[in-house]
Structure formats: C-alpha cells, structure tokens
Write a structure and sequence with these properties.
Number of domains of chain A: 1
Largest interface: A-B, 37 and 37 residues
Largest sheet of chain A: 4 strands, antiparallel
CATH architecture of chain A: 2-Layer Sandwich
Strand order of the largest sheet of chain A: 2-3-1-4
Helix content of chain A: 25-40%
CATH topology of chain A: Alpha-Beta Plaits
Order of helices and strands of chain A: EHEEHEE
Structural class of chain A: alpha+beta
Oligomer: homodimer
CATH class of chain A: Alpha Beta
Strand content of chain A: 25-35%
Shape of chain A: globular
Chain lengths: 87, 87
C-alpha cells in the first residue's frame, strides 16, 4: 500500500526519526516521506516509531491508501527529491 | 475533493503561506494542512501560492484525492488539531 508520513517531533529526535523512516520510505520534503510498504512493514514502522518518539511531545501522521492511483501529487516550486517517480 | 498540502518554504514566508492556506484548509501539523475544496478553489490556491512563494527556493507538495475515503489517517503521539474530523 502507499504510505505518506509527516512528522513533527522534538528536534532532539528529528535525525533519529528521519533515519528510521528512510529505511522503509523515500524522503520527499522536510519531515515528509512516502513509499510503498506491506501491511507487515507498516506495523513494524508504527511499532518502531512508538519506541523512538515521545508520544506526549511528538506528533506523527500516517496517511495510507490501498493504491497510490487514488492520490495525485503536484509540486509547486522545487522538487527536493528527484528520485521519486510518483505520478 | 480532498487536498493535503505540505510546504517547506523560506522562514521569511512561513507565516504568510500558513495564513494564506488557512483561508481554505485546516492546519493539522507543522507545515501540513488538509481539507475539502472544489476544483476552482484548488486552482485559486495554486495560483495564490505561486504569487506568494519563491519557486526557486520553496517547495510545496499538493496531494489530492477525489474522495477522502481512499485515504485513511492515523496519528501517533499528539493530535495537534482537535478540530479535524477526518476518519
């Protein structure tokens, strides 16, 4: 499934959260990653995030779509990640 | 349609971009807004953003889905905006 994650965490944890999420997803903008993962991987991601973040201070939003075709993406200005081939 | 916008703009323009987008969408996290808009409103939003941002420095990503039912949203940690009723 297609997953989009946006995070707003204490700056002490920003690098750790980014590094962790990059093992599953593609970085597309400051604090935003996307990618295709399985249900099992998403469960892993959520469990990992719960371990490395502070749920009283941090906020992470996970959007998921069964197929990425339900979502279109458009960029105004700079495309920060040239690798992404999302349409 | 459902629209999700994430922005990464020069700090000089952050407040302006946020204020502008708030006239159409709900703020849900740092640099992230979502909402239901018409095609006409989305055209307006894009045109407004092009005027107030610097396309050589800033990056704004617009995700859109014809129906928000195609997308589910889950939050880990704090929900910054209590008003949102997206399921």
């Amino acid at each position: 499934m297609y997953v989009l994650i946006v995070y707003d965490v204490n700056e002490k944890r920003v690098a750790k959260v980014l590094k962790y999420l990059r093992t599953y997803l593609n970085w597309i903008q400051n604090s935003v990653l996307e990618g295709e993962v399985t249900e099992g991987q998403l469960t892993e991601i959520k469990s990992g995030l719960k371990k490395i973040t502070n749920q009283k201070e941090d906020s992470i939003i996970i959007f998921k779509a069964r197929h990425k075709k339900w979502l279109t993406k458009e960029i105004i200005g700079q495309e920060k990640n040239e690798i992404s081939n999302f349409i």
